[in-house]
Design goal:
The chain has eleven helices and nine strands. The chain is α/β, with parallel strands linked by helices.
Length: 308
């Protein structure tokens, strides 16, 4: 973790450049003690405000929705864009509930389907890679099922140091442990001890450890580490997706059957195409809850124009 020295001035006051982060964490803390349906309402208003004060992120999300849902009208995509920001606002508020909420209360908010698929994969004794995607409910879901099922997370440090510290503590509290995404040896050891590990396969990290695979019919740089780990360790790959239910009813978590033929017959290219389709299908169930503000199509094939 980063050194705290640069966050606090010699007089003991928070440096002005960190005021927005402290304010955000303060709001998250205060709202965590409100009834859940109030948190949802407040989060929606925060998201609506973010829609207007974050034009850069709004542009990225708008481009992504245009690329991925050409069948929708411009009006329908605009409505989906506004819904997406409202849902992201809720995800900010619910981080407080994920961090400070009581277990007995939180467990009343979750409905889990397909747990038998995770159990069957763990019975093989070679670990499980939980194939997931960047739905905006990720941190809450980690708290709901992380320690219950002994799940470990793969962590990428955030650029904003104060937020990185908060997020690291939140995820450390929610999960059995965190592994740096570049520490392959530790990840393999975790799998050998038959732990499940969250692995989000839907962000663009460039082409160094990725290949192009269609995502919503668009070539997208798709990381290969998950399947290479599965081939190396024999770990099962179990897709898991999750959604916030309407009308503040809680959360739905769905474990799917383990992917077959990953470590043997199927090529890496076929495996990536298959998982991208799985993620697409999951997104289409609830597109307003996906992280569209990420530049998913940042890396382009040689000679192809950029989207953003």
């Amino acid at each position: 973790m980063a050194n705290n020295a640069e966050k606090i001035s010699p007089m003991g006051f928070v440096h002005p450049r960190h005021w927005p982060s402290w304010l955000s964490i303060g709001i998250v803390y205060i709202t965590s003690y409100l009834p859940y349906h109030w948190q949802v309402v407040i989060g929606c208003y925060i998201g609506k405000l973010a829609y207007w004060v974050m034009p850069g992120r709004r542009h990225i999300a708008k481009v992504n929705l245009h690329l991925c849902f050409p069948e929708l009208t411009a009006e329908q995509r605009q409505q989906l864009l506004k819904q997406n920001f409202a849902e992201m606002g809720v995800s900010i508020v619910e981080m407080g509930l994920a961090y400070w909420g009581k277990d007995d209360y939180l467990q009343r908010l979750v409905n889990i389907e397909g747990k038998e698929h995770l159990d069957a994969a763990l019975q093989k004794g070679k670990g499980v890679i939980l194939l997931c995607a960047h739905f905006i409910t990720m941190d809450m879901v980690a708290r709901l099922v992380g320690k219950r099922y002994g799940i470990w997370g793969v962590y990428r440090p955030q650029k904003k140091l104060l937020f990185d510290r908060f997020l690291f503590r939140l995820r450390s509290r929610a999960l059995s442990g965190l592994l740096h995404r570049k520490d392959i040896r530790a990840i393999v050891q975790c799998l050998k001890q038959n732990y499940p590990i969250y692995y989000a396969a839907d962000q663009d990290y460039g082409l160094r450890h990725s290949v192009f695979s269609a995502f919503f019919n668009i070539p997208a740089a798709t990381i290969t580490a998950g399947f290479r780990l599965a081939k190396l360790s024999g770990a099962a790959i179990v897709p898991v997706f999750h959604y916030r239910l309407p009308r503040a009813q809680g959360y739905q978590i769905v474990f799917h059957p383990a992917l077959e033929n990953v470590s043997e017959e199927e090529s890496l290219t076929d495996s990536l195409a298959r998982t991208n389709r799985l993620i697409e299908d999951a997104i289409r169930i609830c597109p307003e809850q996906y992280l569209w503000v990420h530049r998913r199509f940042k890396t382009r094939p040689d000679g192809a124009p950029g989207f953003y």
